[in-house]
Amino acid sequence: MKKIIACSLALLWNAGCTEPEKVDNVALADKLLLTTKPIKSQIKADGKDTAYLLARLPHDAGVVDVTFTTTGGTFVFSGGSEIKDYADSSDGTYRYATALLKADTIPKQVYVTAEIASVRNRISLTFTK
């Protein structure tokens, strides 16, 4: 009897921890959008110019924590290369999270990533003279 209960618990544990997360992540990976607003691929490498970043995901994803990271520049409100924002603003169809990236003074190409759990989307920006 103990063996049957132990096996049943093991099956329940495994069933509840694998498939639903994979299905949700696959669906979200197709729908997570990262862009700048207005859309641009370059900002001045003057230590002052900024790019407004927008992560968009389906409304039914719920209120989630979006982590933005960058390989260059700094996020204005964190002063570093990482910042988090809740995707809680909604227009009924999508939810949005935002971040403001300030350029370095050295011209270069950088990558900005938006991540939710293990789902990521990445764009590149060029800091120009």
General description of the model:
21% of the residues lie in helices and 46% in strands. The chain has 129 residues and is α+β, with helices and mostly antiparallel strands. It is elongated, with a radius of gyration of 19 Å. The termini are far apart. Mean pLDDT is 82; it is low at 1-23.
Query: Radius of gyration from the CA trace?
Result: 19 Å
**N-to-C SSE string, H for helix and E for strand:** HHEEEEEEEEEE
Largest β sheet strand count, sense and barrel closure = 5 strands, antiparallel
Strand content: over 45%
Task: Report the strand count.
Answer: 10
Structural class: alpha+beta
Helix proportion of residues, in percent? 10-25%
Q: Count of DSSP helices?
A: 2
* Model regions low in confidence, pLDDT < 50 over at least 5 residues: 1-23
- Mean pLDDT across all amino acids: 82
How far apart are the termini? 74 Å
Morphology = elongated
